[in-house]
Design goal:
Layout: E1 16-17, H1 26-34, E2 71-75, E3 81-83, H2 85-89, E4 94-101, E5 114-115, E6 124-133, H3 134-141, E7 149-160, E8 163-172, H4 173-176, E9 182-187, E10 190-191, E11 201-203, E12 216-222, H5 229-232, E13 236-237, E14 246-247, E15 254-257, E16 262-263, E17 270-272, E18 275-284, E19 290-296, E20 304-305, E21 307-308, E22 318-326, E23 330-340, E24 363-369
Parallel strand pairs: 2-12, 17-24
Antiparallel strand pairs: 1-5, 2-3, 4-6, 6-9, 7-8, 7-12, 9-10, 9-11, 13-14, 15-18, 16-17, 18-22, 19-20, 19-23, 21-22, 23-24
The chain binds the ligand Nc1nc2c(c(=O)[nH]1)N[C@H]1C(S)=C(S)[C@@H](COP(=O)(O)O)O[C@H]1N2 and molybdenum atom.
The ligand Nc1nc2c(c(=O)[nH]1)N[C@H]1C(S)=C(S)[C@@H](COP(=O)(O)O)O[C@H]1N2 binds near residues 56, 100 and 213.
Length: about 375
């Protein structure tokens, strides 16, 4: 692996936290323009229309010649497999509705701000993903005794904080054998589009987005822990530069609301008429099913229960509604928060860490009642 230092100062150095008065930079804007979020009003759809699903790509969308593309499966296995798409598609298939969320969602609101892709709250989307259970493929390869982790490598290549790499993530063997862990080649009943990992991506429901390796080209069973960059350096819950920290894993609970009324173009502040409004939104957690959603419509954060809609499978977000009587004109702040059946909830104060990971602070929506 080449070190970025050989490439001069034009490539990124260590991760950075913005100074107290440092505005979002053109570099952050450059990332934000490539990696778009979900327009919050489209939380109205049970399944996010494909082009509206959030996107996060560290490097470039790679050029892949689909006819000659192959997936190799090997390492600590009885045999090495080389599979084309037709072979994968001839294996048993499942469709699972899954809500994906980027681990950095919410990062741009943290103080001080971790300098990276500057998400507010919109790095989320839900799709019907279709593919072959990974366990079937690993079974064909034959996992040898003493296997510990499985590494998943994409076809995309870049430099990150000075380290040149193919995007790769590792997971423990126990974690990847579940029936809903899939190698998917279809999204919402159509072939995966290039930006979402065509021709094949890994899908591990309940885990944050970094686990869902796109443009998958290699699966390697390891007899030791995977120590690649995206596990060992990135995606850690750290407060100081020198800390190793805990790894980022499953999605913390979050509720979001469709912003009510209509927006002001620049500020996005909402305008609503006085009267009764049906607030609606979605809530999800990768740890356990959603147990409840609460809404506050005053600045004192007095929480009232929202009504949950029908559950749409373990890995999909759940709809909720709340009747809000907007009686007196003036400025309001609407907030919502989710709690899951494991007791995990959303904090009111920011859960700060250096990379801005897994921070699920409550959403606040500014509204003017007229
Ligand atoms: N090969 C590869 N896979 C990847 C990434 C990447 O940069 N390269 N980004 C990851 C991250 S950080 C996220 S949040 C999800 C985003 O998936 P989406 O773009 O399909 O929404 O893909 C993950 N898989
Ligand atoms: Mo992400």
């Amino acid at each position: 692996m080449a070190r970025g230092s050989e490439l001069g100062t034009a490539v990124s150095g260590p991760s950075r936290v913005a100074a107290a008065d440092e505005a979002v930079s053109l570099e952050e804007l450059q990332l934000a323009a490539r990696n778009h979020g979900l327009p919050l009003e489209t939380l109205r759809y049970d399944v996010t229309p494909t082009g509206l699903h959030y996107l996060l790509t560290h490097y470039d969308i790679p050029a892949i010649d689909q006819p000659s593309w192959r997936l190799t499966v090997g390492g600590h296995t009885e045999r090495t497999l080389t599979l084309d798409l037709a072979t994968l598609r001839s294996m048993p298939r499942r469709t699972v509705r899954v809500t994906l969320e980027c681990a950095g969602n919410g990062r741009a609101r943290l103080l001080p701000r971790p300098v990276s892709q500057p998400w507010l709250v919109e790095a989320v989307g839900t799709a019907d993903w279709t593919g072959t259970p990974l366990a079937e493929v690993l079974d064909q390869a034959g996992i040898r005794g003493g296997a510990v982790d499985v590494a998943f490598t994409g076809a995309d290549h870049g430099i990150e904080r000075g380290v040149e790499q193919d995007y790769a993530r590792g997971l423990s063997l126990a974690e990847v054998l579940g029936p809903d862990v899939l190698l998917v080649d279809e999204m919402n009943g159509r072939p995966l589009p290039p930006q979402h990992g065509a021709p094949l991506r890994l899908l591990v429901p309940g885990w944050y987005g970094m686990t869902q390796v796109k443009w998958l080209r290699q699966i390697t069973v390891l007899d030791h822990a995977f120590d690649g960059y995206q596990n060992a350096t990135a995606y850690r819950l750290i407060r100081g530069v020198e800390e190793a920290g805990e790894p980022v894993t499953r999605i913390e609970p979050r509720a979001l609301m469709l912003p009510p009324g209509f927006p002001d173009f620049m500020s996005r502040v909402r305008v609503v008429d006085a009267g009764r409004h049906q607030l609606q939104g979605r809530a999800w957690s990768g740890w356990a099913p959603i147990a409840g959603v609460e809404v506050s419509t005053d600045s004192g954060l007095s929480w009232q229960p929202a009504e949950l809609g029908p559950a749409a499978g373990r890995w999909s977000w759940r709809g909720w509604t709340f009747a809000w009587d907007a009686t007196t004109p003036g400025e309001r702040e609407l907030c919502c928060r989710a709690i899951d059946e494991s007791g995990r909830a959303q904090p009111i104060d920011q859960p700060w860490n250096r990379q801005g990971m897994a921070n699920n602070m409550i959403q606040r929506v500014r509204v003017v009642v007229r």
